[in-house]
Amino acid sequence: MRGSGQDPLQISSSPSTPSETSNWSGLAVVVGMGGIGSAVADALTLHCPQLEILRCSRQGHPQADLAVDLDHPDSLDGFQAALKADGRPLRLVFNCTGRLHGPGLTPEKRLSQIQRPALLEQFSINAIGPILLAQAVEPLLQRERPFHFASLSARVGSIGDNRSGGWYGYRAAKAAQNQLLRCLSIEWARRWPQATITLLHPGTTDTPLSKPFQTFVPADKLFSPARAAEQLVRVLLEQQPEHSGAFLAWDGQSVPW
Ligand SMILES: NC(=O)c1ccc[n+]([C@@H]2O[C@H](COP(=O)([O-])OP(=O)(O)OC[C@H]3O[C@@H](n4cnc5c(N)ncnc54)[C@H](OP(=O)(O)O)[C@@H]3O)[C@@H](O)[C@H]2O)c1
C-alpha cells in the first residue's frame, strides 16, 4: 500500500510512459455510467491499453454497451448470459453504481426521518446490488487467471470513522456492502486464489450524487470525476490477491471498518 506522501496525480501527469500503463488484458466490465463510472471507463482505456472495456448501465445511457439493473434479478441473469455469450476472458469488474438521494430518498439527519422504504432502497442498491453482481460474474472466473473485483464504497460507511452521525441508511448500506464483500474476499481466497476484491472510497467528487451536498466542501477537496478515476485506477492496479478484502481510499490509505 502506498504512503500518502506520493503525488496523487502522478499517473495523469504523463500517462503514456510505460511505467504508468498496465499490462492487464482481457475484458473489463464497468458497471454504472454515472459521473465516476464513466470516468473510470475512460481512465482504464488510457492506462490499460490491452483491456477491452465494456460499459454497463441501466437502459438508455448513450455510452453503454450492455444494460444491467442491479435491483432486478432478471436483469442480472441477462447480464450474466451476455457475458457468457461474449466469451472473452474476464479480467476486471468495477462496480461504480450507488445512490445517496433521489425521488423520495433524502439522507436522514435524525431518527424521526428514518423510513422503511428508504432504508430498503439504500440497502438494495448500495449493499445487495454489489454482492449480487459478484454472484453474477463468478461463473466466468477461472482458478488460474488473475481477476479483480472493485466496488465503490464510501468513507462515511466506516463505523470506526463515524463521528458526525446522520445519513443513517446510506452509511449503514455502505457498511453492509463492506461486510458482504469482505466475506466474499475470504471465500474467494480459497476458491479463486487469483482473485482480488477491493472496496474503494473515491473522495468527494463532483457528480450528481454529491451535488446537493457540496456547499461546505472546499474547492481543493472536491475532485473532478476524471481526477477521482485516475486516482482510483492507480490504487486498483497496485492490488494483489494477498490484499484482497481491503477498504482503501483514493490515496491508497486503508479506511477503518
Ligand atoms: N460522488 C462522491 O462524492 C462519492 C463519494 C463517496 C462515494 N461515492 C460512491 O461512488 C459511486 C459512484 O457515485 P457517483 O458519484 O458516480 O454517482 P452518480 O453520478 O449518481 O452515479 C451513480 C450510478 O449508479 C447507477 N445506478 C443506480 N442504481 C442502479 C441500479 N439499480 N442498477 C445499475 N446502476 C444503478 C446510476 O445509473 P443511472 O444513471 O441509470 O441512474 C448511475 O450511473 C457510488 O457508489 C457512490 O456511493 C461517491
Explain how this protein is built.
Helix 2 packs across helix 6, helix 3 runs parallel beside helix 4 and helix 4 (116-137) runs parallel beside helix 5. 35% of the residues lie in helices and 15% in strands. The protein has one domain: Rossmann fold (3-Layer(aba) Sandwich), CATH 3.40.50.720. With 257 residues, the chain is an alpha/beta fold. It has a seven-stranded parallel β-sheet, with helices on both faces. Strand 4 (90-95), helix 4 (116-137) and strand 5 (147-152) form a beta-alpha-beta unit. It is built from six helices and seven strands; from the N terminus they run H-E-H-E-E-H-E-H-E-H-E-H-E. The chain has helices at 10-13, 35-47, 73-86, 116-137, 168-191, 225-237, and strands at 26-31, 51-57, 66-67, 90-95, 147-152, 195-201, 246-249. Residues 1-19 have low confidence and may be disordered. The radius of gyration is 17 Å and the shape is globular. Bound molecules: NADP nicotinamide-adenine-dinucleotide phosphate. NADP nicotinamide-adenine-dinucleotide phosphate is lined by residues 32-37, 57-58, 69-71, 96-99, 125, 129, 152, 154, 201-202, 204-205, 207-210.
